[in-house]
């Protein structure tokens, strides 16, 4: 089971059981000051039974539940603003045999202190009686207010991937005036994570459309496909940022592993960029602290517009991109982001050795590069177009190595050099 402030995830019936659901939801209930909670779930086979158990646990602790049924994560986040809290039964982009819980407090994910309370091993005392209401959402209506009117009617293909975006994404895009075709609306014919899947069917259909969009199972991740080619998640984020700049926003937050191309695009159009640790929760936390108007992380194609939702919102992002009037501008942004190359690899290192290995690695690179940043792991700035990040995984026994440059050969050389230094650092700790 994986436990982080981004949520709890596990393989249902293996390391995630109904007893776990009862415990976590019972612990979550006292954190809900409003005593009202929106609940929704994705399309996984285990989602309905987990939702019913979660609802029962919340109600037994005196919480009124507003049951949205099968809806994407962004819809629950939006409705949680109305009720005060939210709970999503999902494991995001993990395979369908996985499932989990995402918690929402005051429109955001829990902080470290709140999450620690959710994980506590304790027996709830006393039984209270909340009520359950079956409700619907006005997400589409509210999203249209943010996106605004469009004067064209683009042809759009949507790959639902069998996920929870099945109803909301087509509704939003049709309401904008798009000509919409959907695929994989009710079937899991591709991988749960569009950033990892090749999206072959969508790529083929996109040749006869203006643009294609692919969602993960809970609708917070988005990948853009255009002219027969799957684009990088960073391209999705850059397109979202372009629309945010159009809306007049100037202050942005990006995770430390997001492409330098996204930052350069923002700054060249009058914006400023602050960096955060990797992870949606960390980006949002930094955005709140620094009053950033938009942000995201490139690795997941996760564009965040806190005015509307304190989460990655793939559905809103698809609407924002579809509403861009200038096709040439979309092509230019994609081309600019594609001129940078990211290479990612990982090394098996036991979790209890991560900090020691990173400490030794930092000493080895001292004086080799122009700048070293230790916000999240060790990031080295080689030049204005090249960087490398070495960071530990919070959920696996691995250390991740990411390199980016506008020169592919240079990126390859640096990746080889950095990987060797990390291996040496690990070798000296054993």
Task: Draw up the topology in text.
Layout: E1 2-4, E2 7-11, H1 18-28, E3 36-41, H2 47-59, E4 64-70, H3 73-83, E5 85-89, E6 98-105, H4 112-118, E7 132-134, H5 139-147, E8 155-159, H6 168-176, E9 179-183, H7 200-206, E10 211-215, E11 222-226, E12 229-230, H8 233-246, E13 251-255, H9 260-268, E14 272-276, H10 280-290, E15 294-297, E16 302-304, H11 314-322, H12 327-338, E17 341-348, H13 354-364, E18 371-373, E19 378-383, E20 386-392, E21 398-405, H14 408-427
Parallel strand pairs: 3-4, 3-5, 4-7, 8-9, 8-10, 13-14, 13-15
Antiparallel strand pairs: 1-2, 2-6, 5-6, 10-11, 11-12, 15-16, 17-21, 18-19, 19-20, 20-21
Count of separate structural domains: 3
Shape: globular
| Portion in strands | 25-35%
Which blocks of ≥5 consecutive residues have pLDDT under 50? none
Query: Major sheet, described briefly?
Result: 7 strands, mixed
CATH fold type of the largest domain: Alpha-D-Glucose-1,6-Bisphosphate, Chain A, domain 3
Number of strands: 21
Distance between the termini: 27 Å
Please give the CATH architecture of the largest domain.
Answer: 3-Layer(aba) Sandwich
| Rg calculated over all Cα atoms | 22 Å
CATH C-level category of the largest domain: Alpha Beta
CATH superfamily of the largest domain: Alpha-D-Glucose-1,6-Bisphosphate, subunit A, domain 3
Helix fraction bin = 25-40%
Structural class: alpha/beta
The count of helical stretches stands at 14
| Spatial ordering of strands, largest sheet | 1-2-6-5-3-4-7
Average residue pLDDT: 93
